[in-house]
Amino acid sequence: MSAAPAERPDPYRTQAHAGPRTVTQLRAALTAASAADREEFEAQLGELDLDDPEEYAALVRSWRHRLVMRTRPEILAAVAASTDPAARRWTSSEILDADGRQESSR
Known about the structure:
Layout: H1 23-33, H2 35-46, H3 53-71, H4 73-82, H5 92-95
Helix pairs in contact: 1-2, 1-3
C-alpha cells in the first residue's frame, strides 16, 4: 500500500467519469463558477422539450464544455496570454498530452 494520497478527479474536466455527472452537480459547479451562467443554464433548461432526450443531452454537453472553458487554469492562462503581445505562445500539444492532462514539463 502506498503512502501517497489517492488522486481525486478534477470536477471541472469533462473526461469520461470526471466532472459534473448529473444536472445537480452541474448546477452546483455553475453556481460556484458564475451565478450568471447558472441563471442562463436554468433558463435554457426550462425551455427544453422533455420528450427530446437528445436536446437535453446537447444542452448538458454544451454547458459542461462551457464550465471547463471557464474554470481550467491552463485554458484561462492561454486566454489571458492571447491578449498579451509579449506573452509566450503555447500550442495545444504543449498544454495537453494525449490523455487531456496538463503536461508535467511546465
